[in-house]
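Hi F.,

I've been meaning to write this up properly since the lab meeting, where we talked about keeping a consistent format for the predictions we share between groups. The idea is simple: the sequence comes first, exactly as it goes in, then the structure tokens exactly as they come out, then a line or two of notes. No screenshots and no reformatting. I'm using this chain as the first example so we have something concrete to point to.
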Amino acid sequence: MKIKNKIVSGLVLSSLLAGGLYAANCEMDKKENMRKNDSSCMMHKGKFENKNHRGEFHIFGIFKELNLTAEQDEKIKKIIEDSRKNEKSLNEAFTKDGFDKAKYIQIMTEKRDNMLKSNAEVIEKSYAVLTDKQKEQLKVLMDLRKEKMDKRL
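Output, unedited:
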């Protein structure tokens, strides 16, 4: 009887551990799944993936829902890559011997000043890649997201 109890106890503990790990995985992926309006706990990669943008309310999160063609997807990725090439790196403020505080401040100030303009240009160029139907769909999705945000407040 003791061996049977040990086996049953082992199975129960294993089940609890597996369930706990699954629940933890679901919790970690919760934001990703909510952003994609996905009810499962599995992570799904969309065609257009840009991790620098902040989730569901950024316009590129909505672009993922427009069923972009492979060509459109590539064009948008290229637009984003090209905009990043123009950014200065913080590495320029560091040397083998030290840190140039003035250079760092200059780079960060330029980044802040150019961020809005750069984002607007990327969105404008990406918007031009869309078809008329996708542009209409984008507007509808943006309106739905706004309503959703308004309800949360």
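Notes:
The chain is about 70% helix and 0% strand.
Residues 101-129 form the longest helix (29 residues).

If this format works for you, I'll send the rest the same way.

G.
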